[in-house]
């Protein structure tokens, strides 16, 4: 029996040398080790418990805990040449009583192979002093485990009323504050031509907005639609509706291309803005848009925006006592039915209507 | 006889599998037929309804006998499988891409005033940003004494408040300007929800940074790929805006801006910037994309109103409605709906069954809170004849919900936004309901 054990151990050692285990997250191993702590202490001056303390267990080898009374079976195994390797410890931890019958370690074993490897990796790192080596990662992990600093020692900032938050750094503000106003405030240095814009637009924009800004499918139309705002079906584009050019630059820079926001350089945004002006017949094909000439460009519909005048509408003026009875002479008649249009979803046919929202 | 067109369509479209809803629905239909037949018998012969014992009562049912799930089965509870049809739905033809689109609250399935978190309609412009709260930052910059950065931990150290507010998309009912189009209040009015928010009054954050005397406008900005921005007058920010991190007691849902959103009570939903990461103070509005090319209201003469922020007084009957027809016969019934005003409280709701010729006062029930939806009921005896059901809300400032004709006369049909007109449901004598327009 013992003979066969030693043979098996030799085989195991050979295999272990061939394939080093790919591990491991020390923090995870440390956490998994918590299940062992009831019997096996680790740490400076760790005492023996029901089982031996495990400081430097790999270096000292099996049976190496001072003042611990090992079982006879365990001592026999050590005499037969049992050593701790990745592989032998793995087999031992799988089911201790199978590996060394009659050992005192009654623990049924760690059944998950990855968990065993994490625990072993952790045990290998624990030095004879019971400490983990001060590698950066371990340091970080230990830092996390350290008790929070005392609340009374926290620094109170000087700013504000309640002294909360921290001062924003100039480079942080520059990274996020990219908004541009119609008066040009916020415009970055740079320039871009209609010609350059053609390339940017065709590679980044045309798939949705169409090569001439005509809009594919239900994607927004960007060009055309001049003098259609009083039509039955107005077409609201940059040229026909948008009041300010700054909005085009700002929006392209913050949100376009759809699915790849903030990927264009400032010069690319100048170029594609110039190209959109060209598509809307606002500039010639040799035009170059720059941070200097930007505010000289005015869009045609700027003057047609008015303030909110809803409260001045006759229908919404205060009417504290609306009619309650016989409010009109003839009974109401149905003039239109949604069923006729039949565009409500969850029917067999799910066809669109002309109305859109966005 | 009884037509359940919408519901059958729904079931069919749900992947063709047998829907758990089928069972109660079929039962409901059988019951309706039985009662209709019974009523017919009663009408012709004058005899009492034939009654056989109900096996649900006389037999021991499975759920009476066998044990169900334990407390460990549903650590985060979900609705009953019999409520599977209660869900947000979208209208795929409305927008180009589902990542910049909208879905709708199933108003006809709800009661009371609070919208459950999972049913609040969604509108985003670059998909749902998934943000670890440990990576959340809120910057205040611009015309302030000290530009600041707050973490979630910082924000939770400010005094916080709880408020119930409705959030309505300015485009709610926007598809109905030209005429009755969608059959269901979920689609015609479902871009509204009503939630209790927990958050920090924005004024505290602004005071912490110290707004300079020139500061008159705010620009909130989102962290999602659209980097959503809207100009808001400083006065509104100081008055009642919240920086909220909880809705209905739990963390904001990702689709509602987790971990942080702006709450702008009574004003259009687009301004309630989700995934809030920055608020800039300035002396002028920025005229961003969402307040120029969108969310401006084109009038018939070609001019367009801008900065139309307040959501005007509005109401809709949610039951009965096209997705929730009357399943019982004539006799006593309940009509119910929601009313709200971005100006304040709703003072009164009237209901008409004849298309607005005659009106009755409805009963407001539940909390009446400023800039929150109000629940109204109209309890009446239906004679089984067709009805043209309408509701009309009046707010505490005497603002009266207009008719469609009045609104079109004032604005034309190309405004898209701010359609708060009176809705008409045509109820057939079979109990079916349709979205219609009347003379």
Describe it for me?
The complex is a heterodimer of chains A (358) and B (439). By secondary structure, chain A is mainly alpha-helical. Chain A has helices at 2-18, 26-32, 57-60, 72-79, 86-94, 96-99, 113-125, 136-145, 170-176, 194-204, 206-209, 245-255, 266-279, 338-341; strands at 166-167, 191-193, 288-290, 305-306, 334-337. Chain A has two domains: 2-138, Cytochrome c-like domain (Cytochrome Bc1 Complex, Chain D, domain 2), CATH 1.10.760; 175-304, Cytochrome c-like domain (Cytochrome Bc1 Complex, Chain D, domain 2, Orthogonal Bundle), CATH 1.10.760. Chain A has 14 helices and five strands. Chain A has a two-stranded antiparallel sheet with strand order 2-3. In chain A, helix 2 packs across helix 7. The radius of gyration of chain A is 38 Å and the shape is elongated. In chain A, 28% of the residues are buried. Mean pLDDT of chain A is 85; it is low at 1-23 and 347-358. Chain B folds into three domains: 1-43; 118-305, Oxidoreductase, molybdopterin-binding domain (Sulfite Oxidase, Chain A, domain 2), CATH 3.90.420.10; 314-436, Immunoglobulin-like (Sandwich). Chain B is 16% helix and 27% strand. Chain B contains nine helices and 24 strands. Chain B has helices at residues 5-13, 22-45, 55-58, 62-65, 152-155, 185-189, 202-209, 234-239, 404-411, and strands at 89-90, 101-104, 123-124, 138-142, 148-150, 161-168, 192-201, 217-222, 232-233, 242-247, 250-251, 261-263, 276-282, 297-298, 304-305, 314-319, 331-340, 346-352, 360-361, 363-365, 374-382, 387-395, 424-427, 433-438. Chain B is globular and about 80 Å long. Chains A and B meet through strand 1, helix 9, helix 12, strand 4 and strand 5 of A and helix 1, strand 1, strand 4, strand 5 and helix 7 of B.
């Amino acid at each position: 029996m013992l003979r066969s054990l030693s043979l098996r151990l030799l085989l195991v050692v050979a295999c272990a040398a061939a394939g080093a285990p790919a591990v491991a997250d020390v923090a995870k191993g440390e956490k998994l080790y918590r299940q062992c702590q009831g019997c096996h202490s680790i740490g400076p001056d760790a005492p023996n418990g029901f089982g031996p303390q495990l400081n430097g267990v790999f270096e000292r080898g099996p049976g190496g805990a001072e003042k611990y009374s090992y079982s006879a079976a365990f001592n026999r195994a050590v005499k037969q040449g049992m050593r701790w390797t990745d592989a032998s410890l793995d087999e031992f931890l799988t089911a201790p009583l199978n590996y060394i019958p009659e050992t005192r370690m009654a623990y049924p074993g760690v059944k998950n192979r990855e968990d065993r490897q994490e625990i072993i990796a952790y045990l290998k790192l624990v030095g004879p002093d019971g400490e983990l080596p001060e590698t950066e990662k371990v340091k970080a992990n230990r830092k996390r485990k350290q008790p929070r600093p005392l609340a009374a020692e926290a620094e109170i900032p000087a700013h504000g009323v309640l002294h909360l938050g921290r001062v924003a750094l100039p480079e942080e503000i520059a990274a996020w504050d990219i908004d541009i106003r119609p008066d040009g405030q916020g415009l970055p240095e740079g320039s871009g031509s209609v010609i350059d814009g053609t390339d940017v637009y065709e590679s980044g924009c045309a798939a949705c907005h169409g090569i001439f800004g005509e809009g594919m499918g239900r994607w927004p139309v960007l060009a055309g639609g001049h003098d259609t705002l009083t039509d039955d079906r107005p077409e609201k584009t940059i040229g026909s509706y948008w009041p300010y050019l700054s909005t085009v630059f700002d929006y392209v820079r913050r949100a376009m291309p759809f699915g790849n926001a903030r990927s264009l350089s400032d010069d690319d945004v100048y170029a594609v803005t110039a190209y959109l002006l060209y598509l809307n017949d606002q500039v010639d094909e040799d035009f170059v848009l720059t941070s200097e000439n930007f505010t000289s460009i005015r869009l045609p519909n700027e003057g047609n925006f008015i303030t909110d005048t809803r409260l001045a509408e006759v229908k919404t003026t205060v009417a504290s006592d609306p009619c309650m009875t016989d409010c009109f002479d003839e009974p109401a008649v149905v003039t239109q039915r949604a069923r006729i249009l039949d565009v409500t979803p969850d029917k067999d046919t799910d066809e669109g209507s002309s109305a859109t929202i966005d | 006889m009884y037509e359940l067109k919408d519901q059958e369509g729904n079931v069919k479209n749900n992947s063709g599998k047998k829907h758990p809803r089928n069972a109660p629905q079929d039962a409901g239909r059988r019951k309706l037929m039985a009662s209709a037949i019974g009523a017919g018998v009663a009408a012709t012969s004058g005899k009492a309804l034939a009654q056989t014992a109900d096996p649900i009562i006389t037999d021991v049912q499975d759920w009476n006998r066998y044990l169900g799930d334990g407390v460990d089965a549903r650590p985060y509870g979900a609705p009953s499988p019999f409520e599977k049809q209660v869900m947000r739905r979208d209208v795929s033809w409305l927008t180009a891409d589902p990542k910049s689109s909208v879905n709708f609250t199933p108003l006809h399935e709800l009661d009371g005033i609070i919208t459950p978190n999972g049913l609040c309609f969604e509108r985003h412009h670059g998909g749902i940003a998934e943000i670890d709260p440990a990576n959340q930052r809120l910057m205040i910059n611009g015309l302030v004494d000290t530009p600041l950065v707050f973490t979630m931990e910082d924000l939770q150290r400010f005094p916080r408040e709880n408020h119930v507010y409705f959030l309505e998309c300015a485009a709610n009912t926007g598809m109905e300007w030209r005429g009755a189009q969608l059959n269901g209040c979920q689609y015609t009015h479902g871009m509204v929800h009503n939630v209790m928010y927990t958050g920090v009054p924005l004024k505290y954050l602004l005071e912490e940074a110290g707004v300079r005397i020139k500061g008159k406008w705010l620009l909130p900005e989102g962290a999602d790929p659209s980097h959503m921005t809207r100009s808001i007058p400083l006065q509104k920010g100081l008055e009642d805006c919240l920086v909220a991190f909880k809705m209905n007691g739990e963390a904001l849902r990702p689709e509602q801006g987790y971990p942080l959103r702006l709450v702008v009570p009574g004003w259009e939903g687009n301004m309630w910037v989700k995934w809030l990461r920055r608020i800039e103070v300035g002396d002028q509005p920025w005229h961003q994309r969402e307040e120029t090319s969108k969310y401006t209201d084109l009038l018939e003469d070609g001019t367009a109103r801008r900065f139309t922020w307040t959501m005007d007084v509005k109401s809709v009957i949610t039951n009965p409605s096209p997705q929730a027809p009357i399943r019982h016969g004539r006799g006593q019934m309940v009509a119910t709906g929601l009313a709200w005003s971005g100006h304040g409280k709703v003072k009164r709701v009237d209901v008409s069954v004849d298309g607005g010729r005659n009106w009755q006062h409805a009963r407001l029930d539940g909390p009446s809170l400023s800039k929150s939806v109000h629940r109204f009921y109209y309890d009446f005896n239906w004679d089984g004849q067709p009805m043209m059901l309408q509701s009309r809300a009046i707010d505490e400032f005497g603002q009266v919900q207009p008719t469609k004709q009045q609104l079109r006369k004032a604005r034309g049909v190309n405004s898209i936004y701010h359609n708060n007109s009176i809705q008409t449901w045509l109820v057939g004598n079979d109990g079916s309901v349709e979205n219609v327009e009347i003379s």
